[in-house]
Amino acid sequence: MWFHEQGRVIDDARQKELMQRTLDQAADRIQARPKRVLLLPPDLTRYHSGAGQLTNWLYHMLGPDCEIDLIPTLGQHVPHTPEENRWMFGDIPEERIHAHDWKRSCATYGEVSAEFVRYATDGRVDWPIPVQIHRAVKEGNYDLVINIGQVVPHEVLGFANHNKNYFIGLGGKDMICASHMMAATCGIEDNLGQIITPLRGCYNVAERDYLAEVPDLYILIVKTRDEAGDLNTTGLYVGEDVDTYVAAARYAREHTVFLFDRSLPKVVCAMDGREFKSTWVGNKAVYRTRKVVADGGELVVIAPGVERFGEQDEVDRMIRKYGYKGTPHTLAAYKADPELQDLGHAAAHLIHGSSEGRFTITYAPGKLGREDVEGVGLGYLPLEEALAAYDPDALKDGFNTVDGEEVYFISSPSLGLWSAREKFLDSLHTNLAFAERMAAREPDEPVWQQLIGWNREDLDRYAQ
Question: pTM above 0.90?
Answer without folding.
Answer: yes
